């Protein structure tokens, strides 16, 4: 019995999307396309911001790091999910499971702080344009970015450490397409109450703190926009803020409903649809939401495309040096 329990704690089977075996080819093609577009969009945005000196401003530094974290989120989940569509055993080891959740937790936590930083940056730019360079210095920008990564890593370490205290003896099948904490709690033969409490406290604190900054920033922005006399300027500002706020609403809404909703550990049927939004849809949409309607990004892309390859390599070399 001890040997069986030990084997259950070291390997799991991901059974997400197995309810529709006749659709596995279609699902593979759809998710593979999403993965390619997500990686090209986010990494392309990171390279563009890195290469174009005019984009070395707080807003685009935050945006570049957000794109990097979205790429990290996609890389931690999608390759294994795609492999499992045509894998016979769908096995994932305990350590792979912990690594997958670690990078997901890092990406999502850092995203929360980066989105809050971006909202604050827009607040300063629109509500205090004359004081922008003093209120939003590059030093403050770097400090906010570093804090996002530090908190993301600390949150991930805490959650993974708490997961390692559990032992899994009920089943070795995870009803999900990646290793998330809630499905693992359901498999635990140890009471996961402490884990549930800690994820509620830490995840709740991170999300409430950052979403409060976002809401206050955007309410202040809206107040300033409605005071504008120019209808054209008001329309452009509202259009930009609306697209940004839509992305933020989907992101925070899915995270809150996943980890903070009552009885979230018991409601397994809601895990996969909600997880699809914050692990696949948001990383796919963010590069387009923040870039396609941004004239500076579009102009930077045009300038890069007009340059000769040897000039681009020379510029990359000068930036790195």
Automatic annotation (TrEMBL):
Subcellular location, record wording: Cell membrane
UniProt topology in membrane: Multi-pass membrane protein
Entry-linked PROSITE patterns: G_PROTEIN_RECEP_F1_1 (PS00237), G_PROTEIN_RECEP_F1_2 (PS50262)
All residue ranges annotated as the G-protein coupled receptors family 1 profile domain in the record: 41-290
Listed name of the protein: Olfactory receptor
Transmembrane segments: 26-48, 140-158, 197-225, 237-260, 272-292
Broad class of the protein's primary localization: membrane
Key words of the record: Cell membrane, G-protein coupled receptor, Membrane, Olfaction, Receptor, Sensory transduction, Transducer, Transmembrane, Transmembrane helix
Keyword hit for Membrane: yes
Highest taxon listed in the record's lineage: Eukaryota
One Pfam short name: 7tm_4
Keyword Transmembrane attributed: yes
SUPFAM superfamilies: Family A G protein-coupled receptor-like (SSF81321)
Family note: Belongs to the G-protein coupled receptor 1 family.
GO CC terms in record: plasma membrane
GO MF annotations in UniProt: G protein-coupled receptor activity; olfactory receptor activity
InterPro entries on file: GPCR_Rhodpsn (IPR000276), GPCR_Rhodpsn_7TM (IPR017452), Olfact_rcpt (IPR000725)
